[in-house]
């Protein structure tokens, strides 16, 4: 049970800073300017659920490879995540401008839930959270704990985008958060490479 909780906590702690400056946060923020917040949250939460299932399954498939190859694939996943975050830290001003320029027509109902699901479902393919989730499972983490920690982290980030998004964008620079998250991924890549 302690191992399960530790793995869940690790996934949660790693996913939140990776996703906070990501397109997931911005997309959710923009969706709340078009649709009711609860509809957006239901749609994105469902999309995250499906994407976490896919990521865990991918991590399990990586685990079927020889142990040495698995270790280096995990290093590559973390290194790619760090590189993407460092590169995207330079473009954070464009993301902030996109969020500020979003229109304000509000729609409700199933259409809003479906639109939110589709936007986030498409945006998450190959996303950092998916790579990180797969990497944690491939590294030997309990797949159920990694799934739950990753999904809760994504749900929290989308909730923050809905509740505090505009305030956060005004007070916390996205490039700083992206550099911190990139540093976390780089550290994971280095630690994994050293232990490989």
Task: Summarize it.
The protein is mostly helical.
What this model shows, in words?
There is one protein chain. The protein has nine helices and no strands. The protein has 196 residues and is an all-alpha fold. It has one domain.
Q: SSE layout and pairings?
A:
Blueprint: H1 2-19, H2 23-34, H3 37-63, H4 67-89, H5 92-100, H6 110-123, H7 128-138, H8 143-171, H9 174-195
Helix pairs in contact: 1-7, 1-8, 2-3, 2-5, 2-6, 2-8, 3-6, 3-7, 3-8, 4-7, 4-9, 7-8
* Quantity of strands, as a count: 0
Secondary-structure class: mainly alpha
Cα-atom radius of gyration: 17 Å
* Element-by-element helix/strand order: HHHHHHHHH
What does the largest sheet look like?
none
Helix content: over 70%
Mean pLDDT value: 78
What is the overall shape? Answer: globular
Keywords for this entry:
196 residues; mainly alpha; globular
């Amino acid at each position: 049970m302690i191992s399960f909780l530790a793995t869940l906590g690790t996934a949660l702690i790693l996913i939140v800073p990776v996703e906070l400056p990501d397109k997931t946060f911005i997309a959710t923020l923009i969706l709340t300017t078009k649709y009711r917040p609860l509809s957006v949250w239901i749609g994105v939460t469902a999309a995250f659920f499906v994407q976490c299932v896919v990521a865990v399954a991918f991590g399990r498939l990586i685990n079927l490879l020889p142990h040495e190859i698995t270790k280096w694939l995990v290093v590559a996943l973390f290194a790619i995540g760090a590189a993407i975050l460092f590169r995207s830290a330079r473009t954070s001003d464009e993301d902030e401008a996109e969020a500020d320029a979003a229109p304000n027509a509000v729609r409700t109902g199933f259409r809003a839930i479906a639109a939110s699901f589709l936007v986030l479902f498409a945006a998450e393919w190959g996303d950092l959270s998916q790579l990180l989730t797969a990497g944690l499972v491939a590294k030997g983490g309990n797949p159920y704990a990694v799934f739950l920690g990753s999904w809760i982290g994504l749900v929290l980030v989308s909730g923050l985008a809905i509740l505090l998004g505009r305030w956060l964008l005004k007070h916390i620079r996205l490039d700083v958060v992206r550099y911190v998250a990139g540093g976390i991924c780089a550290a994971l890549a280095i630690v994994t490479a050293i232990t490989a």
